[in-house]
What does this fold into?
Amino acid sequence: MTSTEERLRAAARAAADTVPPGSAPPLRLPDVQPGRARWDQRHRWVRALVPLAAAAAVAAVVIASLALTRGVPTSSSGGTASPARSAALSSVPPYYVALTSAATPAQAVVRSTATGAVVATVKPPRPYGEFKFVTAAADDRTFILAAQRWWPIASGTRGLTAEHRDNTTPVVFFRLRFDPATQTARLTLLHVPRKVPASSLDGMAVSPDGSRLALALYPAQIEVITIATGSARQWAWPGAVSSAGPWVGNSKPSGQPLSWTANGRTLAFPLTSESGGITWVMLLNISSPGGSLQSAARRGVSFLGLGHVKPGPVGNALITPDGTRITTITTQLEPSRARVTEFSARTGQPVSPPPAGATPGTLTPWSVLWTDSSGSTLIVNGIRTGPSAAVTGILRRGRFTPLPGAPLATDNVAW
Amino acid sequence: MGIPTRTSWAGARRSGPGWADDEAPAEAAEAVAALYGAHAVGLIRLAVVMLGDRAAAEDVVQDAFCGLYRRWGQLADTAKALGYVRACTLNGCRSELRQRLRAQRRDRQAPAEVLAVSAEQAVLLGEEHQQILQALRRLPDRQREALVLRFYLDLTEPEIAVSMGISPGTVKSTTSRGLAALGRLIQEAGR
It folds into this structure.
């Protein structure tokens, strides 16, 4: 009997060999011209406006300079900030932590939300090689990081030993305290008696007061650790050991899978089905007795049976700190377009209009990364039409305010 | 066709303005056609492994190259075009499998019926290979893609991480879980 990976390799090769060399059908390119060229052809008249635009730009610079001398509030990047942009920036936490992967090299970076400037950097202490997850408390000063050893692995079957060693080595947890006054960050190793293998950790969220840490463990287990004592409570979804799910988390690490209400009593988590999209957003009452996740949690939103919303894919879903809304990205069937949708946590039905306003037509959102107390201000990422493309920004009153320098990967950033 | 995996997308975008419009269409068509000539068979093979259906695989790859053509002017680095079109192919396969599963739920078909290989594939593949590939297609998206990238395309861990838009650590855990789940599914099918 050969090993699973060798059988898979042989089967894949056999399937691939059914496509002989040189058998690809001819390429049929669409009639439309590629992106920018098409725009340029339709808008040649714009060229005539270039001198006018240059003059307007000069005038704008002069006006901006005058405004600076009169003490108009400016962004910390040095440019003038519009009232809408200033309002948006003042409604979100001023700092966040982003992780970089082992290849770049691995570190946790504290950045300014308004400017994207790096204000502090920490590396995983040896022997740890990579921070795996990050989560933020409500004070915008306390962050929890999970670190793992991380050994590089080779391609194919040659790296299986290193991979197994990496997967089975427990992760450790650090508290990162950021001091805005001194612009410094300090790491403290947390005492967590529970050993969590690196391959089991699918996400984590610290409670708003920073006292408890919730872990999403594969395949369908939630664990809440009291940080001061190291004591833990576990809930497991009964029978969830099959590859068909359900499991806690999402099909890609898109945003944080876990979120807390401000009072620290309710934890929202997604259950993902075989098709890879979130099937339900569940609400766990952490004071519930027993260890069954099915008994202790109720369905907040069910994506099965919602006629106007695809059952998947949904990147992630967050409960608002006031506990009234569950906010996520959905794809409408007709017309097919991704948008931010906010659901009532009580009824599971969409709230219309959403508190953060309608998603601008120029934005195709991927994930909700942060929400304010009621879901009226969100930080989301996605693709914007135009040259700037992939962006992270603030969605507030139907207006999207891009954040400069914000990371685009979504499993490794926390506000 | 869905959007490409976010890491490869972000890495492939040009931050500044596009090219001079006089050279754009010809350059794009020639470059995309050259890329298609060099890599179309490889990508169709990848899609056949994922889908088990040659016709659907060809459609997915055709869509991926059309998407590349439309966005050619926005590529930051044309050397990354292959990574982009590979990510598009994987996304196309994912969408196709999801559509089949939705149809299965709607029409109450058995999963084996929905995920079965085409008649042509059934003739060309042995029974054991068919069984393994059917089990592969029953895995969650991320596990299936990680296994195919690792054990069929022989990509390195950082390459898989970039293609899938996940961290290297997550590549490891996903591959490990995928192998374990595949082994279980193969055992179940063999009983």
